[in-house]
Queue: 4 jobs
Job 1
Amino acid sequence: MNNILVAESVSKNFGDFKALNNVSITVPKGSIFGLLGPNGAGKTTLIRIINQITMPDTGKVILDNSPLQPKHIKDIGYLPEERGLYKSMKVGEQALYLAQLKGLTKAEAKKRLKHWFEKFEIENWWNKKIQELSKGMAQKIQFIVTVLHQPKLLIFDEPFSGFDPINANLIKDEILQLRDQGATVIFSTHRMESVEELCDHIALIHKSNKILDGKLNDIKRTYKTNTFEVGLVTQNETQLMEDITNTFETSVADFKSLNNDLKLNIKLKDNETSNNLLSFLTSRAEVNHFNELIPTANDIFIQTVKNN
Ligand code: ADP
Ligand code: MG
């Protein structure tokens, strides 16, 4: 099978509270899978179940074609939401210790850590104590330790929280590289900025239920409205507007332009193509801007959560 992980109808209660209600996800090998949802949706609960920290009440999780079992823990690199490092231990000492817990020899761990510390230009942190590091710095160490044993499945719970934009970008690039080297990545987030650049698949969880999932591009296709934003230059704006509104449905456009264009959104009917619109416009004005409005992950997130 081409799925590295399948969760089937997973439910989890905490007392009377249902934190997950029949949630199923399918994660294809080699994908970057975004587990999205507002705070409290149930993302971390699902991630903790996949990592065998808690047990589901009902449902099951299949990893690489076999039901979850203790030996799988070594196959997963897991960055928890609550980052825990021993505050009084030194960075290098701790990284070596954690790497050996994952099954690396000390020599191999040292070699790989040296590589990562050089890559992140943090060689001089080796002898610092964890408590001397800022939150973002400690998180970088934990990221390294998570990926060091090169597991085939990486699960990052809110990997970008706590990072400034530069370091968030650094981590983003690393995640893409890990995917290119063959790893599968699942990460949770309640913020959508990272989703566009990273995810090929998503699942949206809201109030303990999965309310949307699939390939991000397929989802975008179903959410798009055949609307184009256009910027036009004309001598006779009134006439042009009249022509357009007689033929198409329009709305106010919101994009930046350096020129004093007439800006508007134009929605096509189902049987019309972008070429129909373009030839209509070019015969009447100079077209300075022509761009299909594709819903962003953020648009989809907000719209779907509101409708549920
Ligand atoms: P998310 O990661 O999507 O923000 P969580 O999975 O952490 O959400 O939490 C989902 C809900 O389950 C929240 O309402 C949270 O308070 C509750 N919850 C999570 N873990 C526990 C627990 N151990 N005991 C009681 N309630 C919990
Ligand atoms: Mg969480």
Note: The two ends are 33 Å apart (CA to CA).
Job 2
Amino acid sequence: MKILVTGGTGYIGSHTVVELQKKGFDVIIVDALFNSRINTLDGIEKITGIRPEFESFDLADQRLTDDFFARHNDIKGIIHFAAHKAVGESVEQPIKYYRNNLDSLMNILESMQKYNVPNLVFSSSCTVYGQPDAEHLPVSENAPIKKAESPYGNTKQIAEEIISETIAAFKGLNAIALRYFNPVGAHDSAIIGELPLGVPNNLMPYITQTGYGIRECLKVYGSDYPTPDGTAIRDYIHIMDLAKAHVIAVERMLNEKMKKPFEIFNLGTGTGYSVLEVIKSFEKVSGLKLNYEIVGRRAGDIEKVWADPTFSNNELGWKAERTLDEMTASAWKWEQAYRSL
Ligand code: NAD
Ligand code: WQD
């Protein structure tokens, strides 16, 4: 069974490719290498012994995307990771995000219909929930969708609507949207992980780079939130738990287990941790004292969110297993391995 993984040399895509190959799937990756490197293919091959097929082009280009599908008539499913994902950059360059993230999705959907590729797994995000109200925490899939805080978050909300409406129009298409919470960590081998391109926006890579001495000091954005220790709470999930969920979603579609043509699942652990708790976990697993300072809140940040993963646990038969300490240990192992290359 051949699966197309768009964005497959990226962080979540590469880890998912490893899991797909372990389950015996043939994988072909399309990635424009906007935010990843081709030698990630070497890492995947080193882990699984199988080098995925690979083509590099911009999926926002309709002609190139159509041409790809015309040449590959054996694709049974698509996992669509390809997108720009930097929240801050999306505020500065909204058109870049709307064009890239939505044109690529629409090209994929058009090709699915034209070339009879029935199954799509789409990378969505808990960002669609915004700051859930107290009565909606933990947040389940039917919690209200809030106005997006950024053009990036809006591309995810609009994408889900486009998928829903396209499926209603094109009978025979199926889609599963996976709403990720906060993916962290790396493959146990530390051969692949999230590439540290530029100054990290996200907490975990900033922590590990500070621990390694690449960054001077971690800024903790706000300690005046209405949380036990005043710092913001997120549902961090190990990348390997996340990758496994994608394989389960693909198998659900291929085995025709879906209950309706468009399904949505939260992928979180169901446990929220504060920034200070993540720092404490890192210090415990690394044996280091992390240099950090408390500063003001970061614009656009929500105060607390964590998943109600009941629906995913029951319907997908999937449950995140890795602990916070395993997440911080895995991120730290990747940082050290990457810097010693
Ligand atoms: P990433 O940047 O590591 O991977 C995305 C990949 O897509 C990159 O390799 C990039 O080169 C490629 N790409 C982007 N636009 C493309 C295009 N038009 N044509 C071809 N390739 C293109 O990001 P990631 O962290 O692996 O995220 C994967 C998906 O998951 C994204 O859709 C992202 O929005 C979503 N997501 C990520 C997070 C997170 O915290 N990492 C959380 C929620 C959702
Ligand atoms: C986590 C917590 C920060 C950095 C983002 C996107 C979301 C998704 C995941 C794509 C927050 C705090 C962070 C730092 C800090 N990406 N922090 N100092 O903001 O929850 O989600 O990444 O889909 O769409 O919004 O993740 O890792 O940036 O922040 O104190 O240097 O750590 O304030 O409370 P976030 P994050």
Note: The longest strand covers residues 119-125.
Job 3
Amino acid sequence: MRFHIETYGCQMNVADSELITTILLRAGFEPAKSLDEADVIMFNTCSVRAHAEERVLGRVSNELSRKRNKPELKVGLVGCMAQRMGKSLLDRGIDFVVGVDQYQILPDVIMGRDQIHTEFDQTQLYPGLIPTHHSKTCAYITIMRGCNNFCSYCIVPFVRGRERSRPWQEIFNETREAGSTGLKEITLLGQNVNSYHDGIIDFAGLLRKLNSIESIERIRFVTSHPKDLSDDLIESMSGCEKVCEHIHLPMQSGSSRILQVMNRGYSSEHYYSLITKLRKSIPNIAITTDIIAGFPSETEAEFNDTLAVMRDVEFDYAFCFKFSPREGTAAAGFDNQIQEEVRLERLQKMIELQRQITLSRFQAKIGKNVEVYIEDVSRKNRSQVSGKTRDFKIAVLSGTESEIGTLKQAKVKDATAGTLICE
Ligand code: SAH
Ligand code: SF4
Ligand code: F3S
């Protein structure tokens, strides 16, 4: 049987799709070269905002229509929506629905019909399974699963279950193996990597262990939660030369009152103090963030507080979202929901402000020397390649396909709000 997986959502899902691929290959399945050739089509899905779910449901119904000409085709849904919507998905004609802790039984499930397996297994870490990484340059390595934080807007703890950490030795082996296949970069994944603890070492300790692996040149991680960013971790980041000068540190809001109703566990002042510490210990660190516009009860003044912090901190990049109520989360039931037009208007203001800030952060790099890890060749111009700097900025420069996977020294000549043009 030939399978095809279409992946949505965060990098956890990208890594899980690699895990599923490894499980299916071991069971004798083969990857399909195209959708037309596939005997099984699987959607690995995201529930974080309503829009993410709607997009997938549209795609699923398209693919289900293939069954008219190919009745033996199986269409399945896995991941966070499987967990959240469960049986209602079977009513849409989907053949199987498998949740995030049950991927090991996928080979059997695919052969059946109307199968649903969404039981949580709070200890599931897929031991002994080292997935084959698909990227030619970076290995996405899951270091923990689940989340215990219950930020009041967020569905993730309900669809991913409780937080648990993989034993460091397994992460170490997976990293070494990735290095031995030629990958120079790893990205460690978890909903809150700062709270990693396998009973033996914490996240600062894990970084120090991985930093000793010779074949690896760059270490990245997502996501860091501000409430768990310790001084020791900052020290470990600055002391480990392979840990890149970048942190993704979701702020969510610049108002301490909103942060409290979000159940984030830190104030705006604390967030600000972390930025100061990071910049002091790691000069030139790039800081990126996530921010939500129009959280229930957010006043115009509180929204302006967020804009003020954005101006003050000058994030290198910010992922801005408008609040999306998720059924079952605390915030969906809060009074004082903000009208859709206001949410949208605030979102647009945020995006515009950040675009200007991003542009000035990128322009500040003009004239500087950077190291670029070449990841791709430009589709428009085959004599141009693109990659990332250590501080997570996309850079383009002249080069050829054979340079993919190599590190190049370059000088920044020009910049847009998203790309460094280098020489
Ligand atoms: N674990 C990560 C984030 C996971 S979700 C962390 O704690 O930072 C990625 C981002 O989606 C969040 O940071 C948040 O900004 C956004 N998000 C999550 N739920 C949302 C919702 N209901 N509406 C709008 N944005 C949301
Ligand atoms: Fe969601 Fe908060 Fe957990 Fe991040 S830390 S996944 S925002 S509950
Ligand atoms: Fe989405 Fe699930 Fe990730 S809800 S953001 S794919 S953990």
Note: Residues 48-49, 153-154, 156, 191-192, 223, 225, 250, 252, 290, 292, 321, 323-324, 326 surround S-adenosyl-L-homocysteine (ligand 1) (CB under 6 Å).
Job 4
Amino acid sequence: MTKTETTYKTLVTGLENGIFTITINRPDKMNALNKDVIEELGLAIDEVYNNEAIKTAVLTGAGEKAFVAGADISEFGSLDKDGGAALARRGGDLVFNKIENCPKPVIAAVNGFALGGGCELAMSCHFRIASENAKFGQPEVNLGLIPGYGGTQRLTQLIGKGKSMELMMTGDMIGAEEAKSLGLVNHVLPLADLMTKAKEILQKIQLKAPIAVSHVIALVNDATICHPDGLAHEIERFGACFESEDMKEGTTAFLEKRKPVFKGK
Ligand code: COA
């Protein structure tokens, strides 16, 4: 694997046979998306757009437990309504929307927990494969929050209204096989085979005409376009949660490793 131009603190990247592998590398924090990871993912996606040697990309997480266990909850404490909305908007602009609209294929190899922002990151990719131990969910309600990186829109598109409502209201996690049966992931493999399978699929795609492939991406995105206001409303309501006592209780309880008590305030 060769290195590309940019070096990162929170990511490990490498380029081999046109495939750019981006590994989020905070395994002791379940690869949670803090400010640095978001900034660096933005730069790594820029590399995908701008480096002609990169033909396709795969996103994964370091270690054997987590793809990404969500946004970094420890960074929420200092944020008010505007700060919460700004966090969601910046992530969308720098990373999530840019991945979705990337003219080169970007897939997720989900190697463990894909929760909250992690599930949203995987869903912003063009498609997903997962290891048998992968778990998916949008557990923000446990924190007095909602998804803020497009989850309310993209999960609903991918698995339909009823199941999306249930997962986001209960905060339940689902396993890889259920995720496959819902259409959230395309293939489920033993963890040891996950990256081999990702590279096999990307090699196959790289033999096809790149311009035609980029048209496919744009048009499938057209067919599944979000409600024009959906993402904007999500950012607004995500910010609004930061004004609630329940959000303060939920995030504090997580960091104190106890169960939250919500009051509807
Ligand atoms: N933000 C910040 N830190 C996180 C995190 C997140 N989203 N997810 C995990 N971590 C940290 C934990 O605080 C812990 O840190 P510590 O070792 O300094 O105490 C470390 O990662 C390991 O996590 P832990 O909870 O001890 O591991 P576990 O195996 O018991 O549980 C999860 C794993 C993924 C089920 C659990 O970490 C979890 O529920 N994470 C939050 C998921 C979430 O709500 N995501 C949405 C965020 S908006």
Note: The pocket of coenzyme A is lined by residues 29-30, 32, 69-74, 113, 115-117, 139-140, 142-143, 145 (CB under 6 Å).
